[in-house]
Specification:
Blueprint: H1 3-12, H2 18-59, E1 63-67, H3 77-84, E2 89-104, E3 107-116, H4 118-122, E4 128-131, E5 138-142, H5 143-148, E6 156-165, E7 177-191, H6 196-199, E8 202-206, H7 207-214, E9 223-228, H8 234-241, E10 249-253, H9 254-257, H10 259-269, H11 271-297, H12 299-307, H13 312-348, H14 355-358, H15 371-386, H16 388-395, H17 399-404
Parallel strand pairs: 3-8, 5-7
Antiparallel strand pairs: 1-9, 1-10, 2-3, 2-6, 2-9, 4-7, 5-8, 6-7
Helix pairs in contact: 1-13, 2-10, 2-11, 2-13, 2-15, 11-13, 11-15, 11-16, 13-15, 13-16
């Protein structure tokens, strides 16, 4: 005997009863709403974290080593090698950074120029929305900055930067002194990371071109970047670096750079699943009431099945199957709607945010499959637990009283 079919035929015959049909719709809708809210909230939180990590990998890294000295980082080869050998460190790269004023035909603004090597510049390709990646004396510019200064592909800009001049051996020993540098560059491309703080001030050009333009010494760098196998170990790596680096160096992790957003994400990850999980618990109670209504209205039919020799274990199994079916329908609807909304937002960026407040210009969503596995499983588990009370009611039913029930 197909017990799934029997359960379906037994309870779907209640469709003619208006109240039973109403509580079924409420139960499925509650499960759908609980699943939908959980999936959307987890997708947004994970989307924020992924956006921050993606931007950190493209333009900086998981861990940065900076120097407060004008002449940049001057680590010995042995110290750099010790950094490379730290647990979890995948690669160590160098970046030449220069703060500068940029002058265009529409005005002047402050920017940060990043000089990168060719391999790192290739990582910008996914963020490139127009033009080409920089080469030689060209540069790429953030979308928000380009829009604010009315710049486009092929426009020439003038930079005013301060660089350090190292004293010659014949001069009296003294720290490097700053000097003004003027140079021009042509915009070859425009990038958009979605992070307002980056898109509003970022300019990237080849490290060799920036070094030549600013008069920096060969090999001079202002920042070392560390890429980690596990970004969550950035704080542990930062502590390990304290034992290697001299005190004048500053260690900045991606969590430090985006501290407010990272703290907000961590804060929300703890209570939001619990709070929104209460919706699923309420849905479980509505499922209990739905099954109880079905059991009461089908008391006579269940008693007749018992009189024909059907074991009580099979009768309670019919209720369990009905509960799992309602849970499955509500969960499937919730997952489908969530996947549709997430897909629309990821593709067309319908919901936009104020980048000055939320760091991103569009609401970030994650396409991770994990929530679409964990949330439905937990919802189905709640649906199974919700059938316990109706199953007990069925198990305690007496055949004679059930047949006489009207």
């Amino acid at each position: 005997m197909n017990h799934w079919l029997l359960s379906h035929r037994l309870f779907t015959s209640l469709r003619t009863d208006g109240f039973a049909r109403f509580v079924n719709i409420v139960s499925v809708s509650a499960i759908c709403l609980g699943t939908l809210s959980l999936l959307l909230s987890l997708s947004i939180l994970n989307g924020y974290e992924e956006r921050i990590l993606e931007t950190a990998t493209q333009f900086t890294s998981h861990v940065e080593i900076r120097s407060s000295a004008l002449d940049g980082i001057t680590l010995s080869p042995s110290e750099v090698q010790r950094i490379r050998e730290l647990q979890g460190v995948v690669s160590v790269d160098s970046i030449l950074m220069r703060e500068a004023l940029i002058r265009t035909r529409t005005g002047i603004d402050g920017v940060v120029i990043h000089g990168m090597n060719a391999e790192r510049i290739q990582q910008l390709k996914p963020a490139l929305i127009s033009g080409t990646l920089p080469a030689d004396a060209t540069c790429v510019i953030g979308e928000a900055l380009a829009r604010r200064l009315s710049l486009g592909i092929g426009d020439s800009v003038l930079f005013y930067s301060m660089s350090a001049q190292t004293p010659t051996a014949d001069s009296i020993a003294a720290p490097p002194v700053p000097s003004a540098t003027l140079f021009t560059s042509t915009i070859s491309g425009i990038v958009a990371t979605g992070m307002q703080s980056v898109d509003a001030s970022m300019i990237v050009m080849p490290k060799r071109s920036l070094s030549t333009a600013t008069g920096s010494t060969t090999g001079q760098v202002t920042m070392l970047t560390l890429e980690l196998a596990n970004p969550d170990r950035a704080d542990i790596t930062a502590v390990a670096l304290l034992t290697i680096l001299p005190p004048q160096y500053q260690i900045v992790t991606w969590k430090d750079r985006y501290a407010s957003v990272a703290n907000w994400i961590e804060l929300q990850k703890q209570p939001i699943p619990i709070v929104l999980g209460l919706i699923s618990i309420v849905a479980a109670f509505s499922l209990v009431s739905t099954l109880l209504v079905g059991v009461v209205l089908k008391t006579r039919s269940l008693a007749i099945l018992a009189s024909l020799g059907m074991p009580y274990s099979t009768l309670t199994g019919l209720v369990l199957r009905r509960g799992l079916w309602l849970g499955f329908v509500g969960t499937a609807l919730g997952c489908s709607v969530a996947a549709l909304l997430i897909g629309i937002q990821h593709t067309w960026h319908v919901l936009r945010l104020d980048g000055a407040i939320y760091y991103v210009s569009t609401l970030p969503v994650s396409l991770s499959i994990a929530p679409f596995i964990l949330v439905p499983l937990s919802t189905m588990l709640l649906a199974a637990i919700a059938t316990i009370v109706p199953m007990v009611v069925v198990a305690r039913q007496r055949i004679v009283r059930g047949i006489q029930f009207r």
